[in-house]
Amino acid sequence: MSDRELPEFLPKLDAYDGDKTTVLAMRLLILTATRPGEIRGAIWPEFDLDAGLWIIPAERMKMRERAPSALVCPSRGSLAHHAEP
């Protein structure tokens, strides 16, 4: 998908009637540019919403090195809305 197609796609993603986890995963994929496997394996303790970081463990990274991923404001908001209590 090109960056020009995003403005049309995002409202459709928000209107998606399926699993909300799918919507969150797609948003994170778009906003963080991480690999799908890193998104699928993500667990809540990896996210520090206050610091705006997602620390992806080395075993899920292609180069096998632990890597922080900065969470831009929209991704932080999406995560905070769906965060576990």
Strand content: 5-15%
Class from secondary-structure proportions: alpha+beta
Radius of gyration: 13 Å
Q: How many strand elements?
A: 3
Instruction: Please trace the helix and strand order, writing H or E for each element.
Output: HHHEEEH
Query: Ranges with pLDDT <50 over ≥5 residues?
Result: none
Count of individual helical segments:
4
Q: Report the biggest beta sheet as strand number plus sense, adding barrel if it closes.
A: 3 strands, antiparallel
Terminal residue distance: 34 Å
Q: What proportion of the residues is helical, as a percent range?
A: 40-55%
Instruction: Describe the global form.
Output: globular
Strand order of the largest sheet: 1-2-3
Report mean pLDDT, rounded to a whole number.
79
Summarize the structure.
With 85 residues, the protein is of the alpha+beta class. The protein has 4 helices and 3 strands; from the N terminus they run H-H-H-E-E-E-H.
Tell me about this structure.
With 85 residues, the chain is an alpha+beta fold. The chain has four helices and three strands, in the order αααβββα. Helices cover 45% and strands 12% of the residues. Strand 1 and strand 2 form a beta hairpin. It is globular and about 35 Å long. The model has no long low-confidence stretch (mean pLDDT 79).
Structural topology:
Blueprint (H helix, E strand, L loop, with lengths): L5 H10 L4 H13 L3 H5 L6 E2 L4 E4 L10 E4 L2 H10 L3
Antiparallel strand pairs: 1-2, 2-3
Helix pairs in contact: 2-4
